Amino acid sequence: MRPHVVAQLAVSLDGVTSGFDVDLARFYALASLWQEDVTLIDAGTILAQENAVLAAPRRGPRAEGPLLAVVDERARVRSWDSLRELGYWSGVLALYAEQTPERPPDATTRELITGYDQVDLVEVLDALGRRGVQTVRVDAHAVLRTCLSLDLVDELALLVHPVLIGGEPWHDIHRLNLQHAGTEVFKDGVIWIRYCVS
C-alpha cells in the first residue's frame, strides 16, 4: 500500500517560497508532528546546503529518525556520508533513474532505481510502501510540485508568513481540491493552515 504523503511549505501571503525569514525551529517542530518514516527531498536542495552539511558536526545516524530519500537523477550529490552522519536521519537512500550517470565503484549509499531518464515517484512510493513505510514527508519545493501534479500528496500544510514578496507562486492553487483540516495562528502573525488533498 502506498504511504501517506504529507508536505509542509513556508510561503508568503502571495504564495512565494523565498525572500523572507522563516523560523526554522518552528517549521521543523511542526513538521515533526507527522513522525514521518521517510523524508523525501531533491538533489538541488541538498546541493544548496552542501557546504553547511560538510561543515556540520557528525553525530552519527539517529536510529529512530526517518530515512532521507534524495531524488538525484544526475548523481550530483557527493555528501552522502556527511548526510548520513548528521544525526537527523537513520540512513540515506539515493533515488536514481536508469539513465543516471554511473556512481563511483566504491559508493556505499543504498540506491533505488526507477524510471528511465527521470525518477518515477509513483514507483518510489509503491516501493517504499512495500517496505513498510507508512508516512513520507516531502521537504522540497521541486519534489512537491511533481508529487502534486501526480496526485500523490494526501496532506498539505502551509506556514503562511505576513509578508508580500511578489514573484512566482509555489503552485496553481485553483487546480487543487483542498479540504480544511485545521488552522493555528502564532503571535508573530504566521498562520499554520492544514489541508487534506482530495
Please estimate the helix content. 10-25%
| Number of structurally distinct domains | 2
Can you identify the CATH class of the largest domain?
Alpha Beta
Number of helices: 6
Largest sheet: 9 strands, mixed
**What is the CATH architecture descriptor of the largest domain?**
3-Layer(aba) Sandwich
Give the strand line-up of the largest sheet: 5-4-3-2-6-1-7-9-8
Q: SS-based structural class?
A: alpha/beta
* N→C terminal distance: 17 Å
CATH topology of the largest domain: Dihydrofolate Reductase, subunit A
Coarse shape: globular
Q: Kindly estimate the percentage of residues that lie in beta strands according to DSSP.
A: 25-35%
Overall pLDDT metric: 90
CATH superfamily of the largest domain: Dihydrofolate Reductase, subunit A
Low-pLDDT sequence parts = none
Determine the oligomeric state from the structure.
single chain
How many strand elements? 9
Order of helices and strands: EHEHHEHEEHEHEEE
Radius of gyration: 17 Å
List the helices and strands and how they pair.
Layout (H helix, E strand, L loop, with lengths): L3 E9 L11 H8 L6 E5 H6 L1 H6 L11 E5 L8 H6 L5 E6 L13 E4 L7 H10 L4 E4 L2 H9 L5 E7 L16 E8 L5 E7 L1
Parallel strand pairs: 1-6, 1-7, 2-3, 2-6, 3-4, 4-5
Antiparallel strand pairs: 7-9, 8-9
What's the quick description here?
This protein has six helices and nine strands.
Core attributes:
198 residues; alpha/beta; Dihydrofolate Reductase, subunit A; 2 domains; nine-stranded mixed sheet; 6 helices; 23% helix; globular
Structure notes:
- This protein is an alpha/beta fold and 198 residues long.
- It has 2 domains: 1-34 and 140-198, Dihydrofolate Reductase, subunit A (3-Layer(aba) Sandwich); 38-133, Dihydrofolate Reductase, subunit A (3-Layer(aba) Sandwich).
- Helix content is 23%, strand content 28%.
- The chain contains 6 helices and 9 strands, in the order βαβααβαββαβαβββ.
- The protein has helices at residues 24-31, 43-48, 50-55, 80-85, 121-130, 141-149, and strands spanning 4-12, 38-42, 67-71, 91-96, 110-113, 135-138, 155-161, 178-185, 191-197.
- Strands 5-4-3-2-6-1-7-9-8 form a 9-stranded mixed sheet.
- The mean pLDDT is 90.
